[in-house]
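PROTOCOL LOG
Step 1. Enter all chains and additional molecules of the complex.
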Amino acid sequence: GAGVSQSPRYKVTKRGQDVALRCDPISGHVSLYWYRQALGQGPEFLTYFNYEAQQDKSGLPNDRFSAERPEGSISTLTIQRTEQRDSAMYRCASSLRAGGALRPNTGELFFGEGSRLTVL
Amino acid sequence: AQSVTQLGSHVSVSEGALVLLRCNYSSSVPPYLFWYVQYPNQGLQLLLKYTTGATLVKGINGFEAEFKKSETSFHLTKPSAHMSDAAEYFCAVSLTSGTYKYIFGTGTRLKVLA
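Step 2. Run joint prediction.
Step 3. Record the structure below.
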């Protein structure tokens, strides 16, 4: 597809279950970001990758959250033992260029439509 | 620490009227500033950005924003609102120069009245 694709679009799960959210970035995009957006709030940074390398995971709330991008393309955000407070919209975004403090990047970040997670 | 404040979670304007959405930031380093728009059931889309250079930046759909360092502001304006501008708008500052590790504001929902 032409844009960033996320699946599932909607996920309802019971507390304690594990969930995996998938992101398929725009073909050829080097960097991939994950954000979380709670209702009534702006998106909050979780983690990002350049190629397959996780560059920064400082925004992951705790060790139940993890992300991978093994081949530098598709990424999976996994939440183990979900809790009600994990309910949110999870947004993935990608960019053509690599991001990093030493590599000025004034390109554009393209967002997917998000995966809405509801934990009962 | 960096932060972003958007004044007004909801703004209503009449069609044809001026649109003004406010954004103030705090940053210990020269900021990269962004405005994103979110239409219903869509992803966030970049409207415009300030990195360096000219402080008045023009974006898509007739929007523009001016970086005012002395006021730590980056307000978004459009001279004449269209019905299609109804959406949620987010201001963001880049936490680390050169990355998209943003801090977003809480958003302003714009309603355009016929």
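Step 4. Note key features.
Chain B has a mean pLDDT of 91.
Residues 4 and 25 of chain B are 4 Å apart (CA to CA).
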